[in-house]
Amino acid sequence: MDSFDARLANELQRLRDETGSDLAAYAAPDSPQSKWRWKRAVGESGTRLLRLTVQPGRGIAGAALRTGRTIVLDRHRNASDLRREDAPLLLSERLSSVAATPVIVDGSAVGLILLGSRAVRSYNDATLQLLADTSARIATAAAAFHMP
């Protein structure tokens, strides 16, 4: 039987391949009231990423959770305040460009997808649409598997 983790791994690998990115990662809370953690990553350079937490409202990942929309830091969009707050994430994976979007089920964020590149690049509309499509498929899987 298929599991949420298997679908998630496949979706992250597919997103990474289709966008030519170096990293695709997924964060979710351990429980509804706990901290958000990186649960799965494809293309990570070590194990440090999976030990980092996501703080809602802080950094690119937190901004995506707080606003409920995709946030991008790349060649054309550079928010130094978000980069400073994401220093552990960006430095541990040597990322120059990142995009993050929430995974929404029944109006609430149940997960977060991060896409990253170690080279400076621009995330175009087609890439951001792939990110949104992946978020929708993961949301469907999360709902089907009754993920928090």
Polypeptide structure, described:
The chain is of the alpha+beta class. Helices cover 39% and strands 26% of the residues. The chain has helices at residues 4-19, 59-67, 80-85, 87-93, 125-144, and strands at 23-29, 36-42, 53-54, 71-73, 97-105, 108-117. The protein has a 6-stranded antiparallel sheet with strand order 3-2-1-6-5-4, sandwiched between helices. β5 (97-105) and β6 form a beta hairpin. The longest helix is centred in the C-terminal third of the chain and has 20 residues, at 125-144. The radius of gyration is 14 Å and the shape is globular. The protein starts with a helix and ends with a helix.
Key terms:
alpha+beta, 148 residues, 5 helices, 6 strands, six-stranded antiparallel sheet
Layout of helices and strands:
Blueprint: H1 4-19, E1 23-29, E2 36-42, E3 53-54, H2 59-67, E4 71-73, H3 80-85, H4 87-93, E5 97-105, E6 108-117, H5 125-144
Antiparallel strand pairs: 1-2, 1-6, 2-3, 4-5, 5-6
Helix pairs in contact: 1-5
